[in-house]
Amino acid sequence: MLSPFRFLVAYVPKLHGLAQVRYASQVLPQLSAEKYNVKRKNYANVHNSDINYFKSILGEERVLTDKDEVMPFNTDWLRSCRGQSQVVLKPKSTEEVSQILSYCNKKCLAVCPQGGNTGLVGGSVPVYDEIVINLMLMNKIISLDEISGALVCESGCVLENLDTYVREHNLIMPLDLGAKGSCQIGGNISTNAGGLRLLRYGNLHGSVLGLEAVKADGTVIDCLRSLKKDNTGYHLKHLFIGSEGTLGVVTKVAIHCPVLPKAVTLGFFGVKSFENILELYNSAKSSLGEILSAFEMADNTAITHTVKNLNLTNPIADYPFYVLVETHGSNEVHDGEKLSSFLEKEMQSGLILDGTVTSEPAKMHSIWNIRESIAASFLVEGYVFKYDVSLPQKHYYEIVPKLKQRLGDKASSVIGYGHVGDGNIHINVTVPQYNKEVLSLLEPFIFEEVSKVKGSVSAEHGIGFRKPQFIHFSKDSTTLDLMRDLKQLMDPNGILNPYKVLPDTN
Amino acid sequence: MSRVLVGVKRVIDYAVKIRVKPDKSGVVTDGVKHSMNPFDEIAVEEAVRMKEKKLASEVIAVSCGPAQAQETLRTALAMGADRAIHVEVAGAEYETLQPLHVAKILAKLTKDEKADIVIVGKQAIDDDSNQTAQMTAAMLDWPQGVFASKVEKSDSGLTVTREIDGGLEVVKTKLPAVLSADLRLNEPRYATLPNIMKAKKKPLKKISAKDLGVDLSPRIKVVSVEDPPVRQAGSVVPDVDTLVAKLKEGGHV
Prior knowledge:
The structure holds two protein chains of two kinds.
Chain A: H1 4-11, H2 17-26, H3 32-35, H4 48-58, E1 63-64, H5 67-74, E2 88-89, H6 94-107, E3 111-114, E4 131-134, E5 141-145, E6 150-154, H7 159-167, H8 185-190, H9 198-201, H10 204-207, E7 208-214, E8 220-223, H11 237-240, E9 249-256, E10 263-271, H12 274-288, E11 292-299, H13 300-309, E12 321-329, H14 332-349, E13 354-358, H15 361-377, E14 383-390, H16 399-407, E15 413-419, E16 424-431, H17 436-442, H18 445-452, H19 477-490
Parallel strand pairs in A: 2-4, 3-4
Antiparallel strand pairs in A: 1-2, 5-6, 6-9, 7-8, 7-9, 10-12, 10-13, 11-12, 11-15, 14-16, 15-16
Chain B: E1 2-7, E2 10-12, E3 34-36, H1 38-52, E4 56-65, H2 69-79, E5 83-88, H3 91-95, H4 99-113, E6 117-121, H5 132-140, E7 144-153, E8 157-164, E9 167-174, E10 177-181, H6 193-199, E11 204-208, H7 240-249
Parallel strand pairs in B: 1-4, 1-6, 4-5, 5-11, 6-10, 7-10
Antiparallel strand pairs in B: 2-3, 7-8, 8-9
Helix pairs in contact in B: 2-6, 4-5
């Protein structure tokens, strides 16, 4: 998939004059501290003596202090956040991570652990001058058990590289997402990333067999077992899955890889209404059963703008909604029979208005590419407010027309797309330029709506820097208190990824 | 109105990583995903557009190969071809099937079916021969418009724009004629569901090369198939002077 940075650069020349000016104004996003009005907490400042200490353990080359070199590590790829860190550390081993944290903990220096920096809630970039610990050099594959499918690797491995590696051994990674070419497995685990095939292969709390993490004081927690079953005491690995680097830094991972499907087929359909999508989903579940691997939807605006902005080809004509159905199976003939009886039935019933179906890798890739490019394609139209929420499926799409009505012509587009099978919708609101008026119309409105139907304010993107003030819409105060107790226990000085996940108490 | 014959070949999908057999006799095809040769897809699209523009009355898709070639033919039918002919060539014979044989088969079928335009992809992405169109034209003694990036009907026949080194060449041919499709001739459509369903019911005739009186004994022997050389890893140099010195050392500047 496209690396977000490459994407922005690659599309600059194609923009017309006006957009180019807009792009220029985005070159340096506003400082997060100013934009979101955050006060610096009482951490120590980074001194030359600290830099020298880091250089003594990592060497000159793995301590970045040059302003231009540090810049990309301060900015998230949505360009909605910019931190003020002056130093980036690139450890190569768990021991180095441990030494760094132990030192920072003693000196009360705040740190920001960072993977591929593809997060969407500002969790992966510093807010003030937190020291960035980027894990990109911890990219070694340690072992692969072809019988159990257990892959053990360091946390800085890029997801797509791991997938390419395990495919050579007839396995696949249990998760797949648009950012796979840049995101790192450690970041995926720390944010409990979901992605396109969660419906089939489950989420990371199931796939991660074990992990190794470093606590704030430098203690290495070794839960790196690759067993499917291991009921020996508290399941501590789960604390590091989805805690966004606030409880520890994940350094190694054992993850279960499912078998590479021998037969893959992809269908792309036009559908009349969201109600029909839900009916089609139920029908796909019962007709396709165990081979169903993804069930995704996107509304008309999401697809037509993506196709236009990125100069892609929509395989079918204009329809109010689009659905993408994928199957993973072991026998092409068997899967083909199931799929064609499903398609014939639903063409006749009218749930599918038109569509295309293919098992050619190149064609499947082009169709997936449209779906995976939606997130990035709207960036060329201006500033994008992104929401990622879980809702009971019957309420899944309701919020999009509500928002359209609420925003009127203040927004250039409001789109909804996502993983219907998991009840997870992505809502993107595009405006020509970031403005607080639209923000105030969106927040907390969206979260209140989600809360009303007992949804989640963050389905797969996490809480990060952008959403702690909304976490209470999904978590009650006793739960939040227990989270704070855990934080206090594992990181008493609060040096790990501050300003993120947990809301301030005052 | 013309009747169009389109040649389609089943090849390893271009997104698949190719592996050479250990004995170097060819590449591994078992259990590997196959698709229609992309240039042939463009040829089918062009033929179907001719029919849609009422320049052609019928489109016949032809494929030479094992039983699975029928899947490729079904794809052509789903794209809009009217009927298909599968010339079954299996096993060892298929491994040594060469452009000359295919050209003879296509020429014979063209006469039998009374087609007056033959379109094939300019080359197949597996053997990269780029010979079938030219040989077919020779066998039929018809004019050829190969590497076509644009085909238009003119009073006396066809006007074909060809992509050649350094630019475009426009040629006029009389009909009947043989064409080969280049990459920019068109963008092939996706087969839509109703058409995929319809394609299952369209006629598909199976015949053998023997029925056509074509001798398939090989004229060329493949000596060995090798992997391309592995690119050597690069190295990081500390400064420009070292880079220049290294380039000089390697005789590059």
